[in-house]
Amino acid sequence: MYRTHTCGELAVSHVGQRVILSGWVHKRRDLGGLIFVDLRDRFGLTQVVFHPDRVKNFAVVEGLKYEYVIKISGEVVRREEKTINTELATGEIEVQAAEVEVLGAAKPMPFEIFETTKGAEDEDLRLKYRFLELRRERLKQNIIFRAKMISHIRQYMDARNFIDIATPILTVSSPEGARDFLVPSRLHPGTFYALPQAPQQYKQLLMVAGFDRYYQIAPCMRDEDPRADRSPGEFYQLDCETSFMEKEEFFDLMEPMFIELTEQLTNRRVKQKPFPRIPFRECMETYGGDRPDLRFDLKFQDVSVWGKTSGFQIFQTADFVRALAVPGGARFTRKEIDDEFTDAVKRAHGKGLAWMKYDQGKFDGSIVKFFSEEAQTQLKELLHPEEGSIIFFVADSWEVSCKALGAVRDLAGEKLGLKDPSVIAWAWIVDFPMYEWNEEFQKIDFAHNPFSM
Questions:
Q1: Which of 13, 41, 304, 420 is 20 to 30 A from 356 via CA?
Q2: What angle do helix axes 280-287 and 398-415 make, rounded to 10 degrees?
Q3: Mitochondrion: present as a keyword of the record (predicted)?
Q4: Residues 442, 444, 449, CA angle at the centre, nearest 5°?
Q5: Residue 53 to residues 34, 64, 172: CA-CA distances in angstroms?
Q6: How many other CB atoms are there within 10 angstroms of residue 391's CB atom?
Q7: Tell me: the pLDDT tens digits for 194-213?
């Protein structure tokens, strides 16, 4: 037998029992002739004490190193009051070892497993030894959380008469806004299968076939540039389809699931119930993106009409001028603005960032000299800036001016501590455009898939 209990299971109720544990040597400490080992498995940590007079093969213990896989047997004892670890689920007990067996020796680790460096090692090194990095608590908890979330989703959907149906992985090309991954056909040389970007056609066929309510945790394969929040080329989504249902009925059906996922699986709360409905265009023109961070209420405004008569040539000739007044932003230094905020605008393909500060009833900044007293008064009436504010401007095309100032908004919220980590602010973004202009291929293309909004 390799274990009678897991390393996260033992408690005071087990005191006096003889147990067998297996796991990894997480930490080792040598104190006064005794050797203390924190033994780790998926479920937690247990402190094991090796006494030279009580362990049959103490020489083996002396040779233990980090990440050795071992099996131990011994007796559960209560810790002394002063040694209790309240941060550990098993912190009131320890195991007095009687026997130890090395199941797998380990070479020196290329980096620390218990994250004293917080994952700061070179990314290539961590990916080379990904199986070691996955032992880290943060990544382990991410994987466990994902499994719990998918299980909760399945229970929720099953309880509402949805059917979990797996659709084909080898399919025909169906443009979904990205390039396809192609798989050559052996039986039909010169022809190709495509990996699905989404199961769109199949779920529509399922509705025609009368299945009424379908869902799956669907793999989506898209030959697109990597993103920070997605695995390159592949991600999974909750894909579903219903018959005989209006949009608002669907929102009412799905909204409780998001609330449950938030408030039952995390320690966060949902900011607003029911979720606000925000039209796509309003969302872009107010927050700068179609998935806005609504935990804070910074909104920007279209000041294009004011810009045309402002006397500032850049604003007068721009397609759109947008302004964001940030209360408390006057504290931002010139270096922060030039190095961080301007860089955020450029990453969003903006040409540049203009700004002025507002304090003691007047504007200040290098561009203020270009505006007449009348123009400044009009700007005050438009924005109603608070004392100690900074006003950021982006002048560009419709899309770029929205996205670039949205990047500024996001950075300002982060730097001012406006993003409450205990809150999630869900919203339904509605009225998406069906098509958009593809600059790369100079053609009209699908925008967001309207069937999955």
A1: 420
A2: 60
A3: no
A4: 130
A5: 10, 17, 70
A6: 22
A7: 999 989 899 999 999 999 99
